[in-house]
Amino acid sequence: MDSDSRDNEYNLVIKNLFHGEIMERASAARQIGHLKDGRATNLLVRALNSEQDTIVVNRIIEAMGEIKDAKSTMFIVELLKRELEKHENEQNKSLLFLIVESLMKIGDKRALEQLGILSRSCESDLKQLTEEAIECIDPNWKKNLVK
User: Fold this and answer.
1) Exposed (0-12), middle (13-18) or buried (19+): which is 127, by Cβ within 10 Å?
2) Which of 31, 1, 3 is nearest to 17 (CA)?
3) 69: helix, strand or coil
4) pLDDT tens digits for the chain (147 residues)?
5) Is the separation of the CB atoms in 134 and 97 below 8 Å?
6) What share of the chain is helix, strand, coil (3-state, %, to 5)?
7) pTM for this prediction
8) What CATH number has the domain bearing residue 23?
9) 84 and 147 housed in the same domain
10) For residue 72, which of 46, 98, 92 has the smallest C-alpha distance?
11) What is the number of alpha carbons within 13 Å of residue 108 lying toward its C-beta?
C-alpha cells in the first residue's frame, strides 16, 4: 500500500471514529489499531473522552494497546481508576480485562501502581491476568518493591 492510499484509509477511519454510527465507530477504532499508527493516539484519547457507547470504548482501548504508544498509558490508567472506584459488583469486568491487556501490550511502568491495586481487589481470572501484566511490564517488580 502506498503512502497516499494509507493516508486516505487513515483519514476515512478517523472520520468514521468521530462521525459514524456506533458500529462504524467501533470498526474504525479496530482498524486504527490494525494500522498501528502512533499519530492516531491523540485522536483516540479525544474519542475516548467523548465516547458514551461501551462497545466503542472497548475498541478504542484495544486500539491503544495495539498501537503501543506510551502516551496513552495515563488515559487508560485514569479509566482504570474510575472503574476501581465503583463497587466491585458494578465494575465492568470485560472493560477491566481489556484495560489490563492493553496496558500489558504498551508495557509502560507508570501503570504498575493501579495494576497492583487491581490485583488485590479482583476475582481469580482477572487477578491472574493482572499479575501476568505486572510481570510482563516489570519482571523485576518484586526486587523494585523492596527498594
Assistant:
1) middle
2) 31
3) coil
4) 677 888 888 999 999 999 999 999 999 999 999 989 888 999 999 999 999 999 999 999 999 999 999 999 999 999 999 999 998 889 999 999 999 999 999 999 999 999 998 988 767 889 999 999 999 998 876 666 555
5) no
6) 85, 0, 15
7) 0.90
8) 1.25.10.10
9) yes
10) 46
11) 20
